[in-house]
Amino acid sequence: MEYTLSELMIVASAREIQDGEVIFAGVGNPLLGALLAQKTHAPSAMIATEGGALGPRPKRLILGIGDSACSENAMTVMPLWRLFADQQNGFVDVGMVGGAQVDRYGNLNSTAIFGDGNYFAPASRLPGSGGANDIASCAGRTVISIPLQRRRFLERVDYITSPGYLTGGDSRERSGLPRGGPAAVITDKCIFRFHPETRELMLDSIHPNVTVEDVKKEIPWELLISNDLKETKAPTEKELQIIHMLDPQGIFIGNGLKELTFEKYIAMLESSLDHAI
Amino acid sequence: MTLTEAVQKFVHEGSTVAFGGMGGTQCVAHAYEIARQRIGNLTLICESPAEPADILIGAGLVKKAEVAWIAYAVAGLGYNFRRCVEQKVPREIELEEYSNYGMSLRFLAGAMGVPFLPTKSFLGSDFAKYNSRIQEMEAPYTGEKVSLVPAAQPDVALIHCSRADRFGNGQYFGISASAENIARAAKHTILTCEKLVDQELIRKTPNLTIVPGYTVDAVCEVPFASHPWNMAYDYIYDLPFHSQQMKAFKTREGFEIWMERYCYGVEDWNEYLREVGFERLMKLHQMEEKFNPSVY
To answer: Are B137 and B1 a contacting pair, CB within 8 Å?
Structure first.
């Protein structure tokens, strides 16, 4: 069964979700993971998107956090502050987040890459938090998706946009954050979890055809490795079929956006109507 | 009143301005109108005002942005925002950063008439390090740590809804995000709608009225005001158009050519729509009807 690393990441993040959970998901691969879970082992999972929609069951690909597909066959649409307040009050089980940099304790940066500069004059300005800080602060747990690259995995991120376990140990609890923290970091080479006491990133599962050395090469500190190191299960045919049905033009999972003409786009939507996802 | 007149009347040099929308339902027509009128030195107070912020920053009309996120999501990055922060082009701006929830609480506080609200967001993060208006305190009742965000009461709110009557009672069929609070918090509110309707129709589904007329100063009917973004039950997202737009925005020159064609070179939003093509717009509407047929 052939699959891409991006598909494997979606499948791995879907497997983090349990049936019946409320999932706060960002658009792109996190949302594809949530939808895949819903179509397989977690049919009663509820997806929330930042615009305020809860429980959409669209026939088409969701293209943004306020896309029309978010309110299509949804359970409710709330004001933005209300959905986030529900999360703050403990109603959201899992948040699916990403970032440009992650560190040893699962803190994420989606604000700015400082490079030789600083916050005010960064080498690369990123979009900012959006709702990521809120999700990382108050969701029951978070699942982080990020490619494994040395420039992304740092001892310390330049800017903590979304708090993980801060400086490790009980520092997250001491900061006043009510709950949560990252449960897993899904990459294109492996899956990390966190040491129960030090709260440090710990290699838990490596993807097929990847070695521990391949992973270590990308990590700038002495990496913890689980005593129970596993191999990530490859995607099943059914999982891949569902992903291709969810994103038929490869807008998120491939290069589909580059070749997306208006005619192709309309044809994609027309075919979604006929092959309800 | 037309949108052109409403902007002339309420948005002034140096105004603090808030835009409604989140993902979709964005105030694109409104931002183009402000850019066309070259109203500058604005302070933007918004959650994730992707397009209005990026365009007005690129046009050099913003001096400060109090925001959570600026980009075009799946279509691409906020190239004008990036050029501005990384290279100070076309000018330097002051940045005051929050999260989406933090910003929405600022509008809620403004709408409630209280000076701040507490939240569990920001704790442990680096926000307060670079934004001195995010404060931390211990709750006087329980001792637990909370972050505080200041109320936002912008001079002008610009909001787009599904339909409204001429008194400004605005209804949403889809996502309204913070419209209810932005309208209430602002000193003046310009409400645009896809369709202006009789009040009789509004009264049939009163629970959809997110923005009550007493918060509104001007009402304008502006169809397709969120293009290329979507408006639930009215039109789908025009992703291929945005994709072209992003190709142009990658360079400063491309942005300027784009603005000349779609903003400065046309008289109003109707002419922008003509430039986009009515056949294309009808297709966007028809597709939305197939997925989200209008129920009212």
So the answer is: no
Q: How far is CA A269 from the centre of its chain?
A: 25
| Residue B32 lies inside a defined structural domain of this protein | yes
Chain B contact set for A67 (CB, 8 A): 23-24, 230, 237
| Domains recognised in chain A with CATH numbers | 5-274 (3.40.1080.10)
Residue B81 identity (one-letter amino acid): F
pLDDT digits (tens, 9 = 90+) for B181-229: 999 999 999 999 999 999 999 999 999 999 999 999 999 999 999 999 9
pLDDT at position A274:
86
pLDDT at A177: 98
Q: What is the DSSP string of B210-264?
A: EE-GGG-SEEEE-TTTTTTS-BTTTB---HHHHHHHHHHHTSHHHHHHHHIIIII
Whether B189 maps to a domain, the answer reads: yes
Residues 183-202 of B with CB under 8 A from A: none
- The C-alpha atoms of residue A75 and residue A73 are separated, in whole angstroms, by 7
Number of structural domains found in chain B = 1
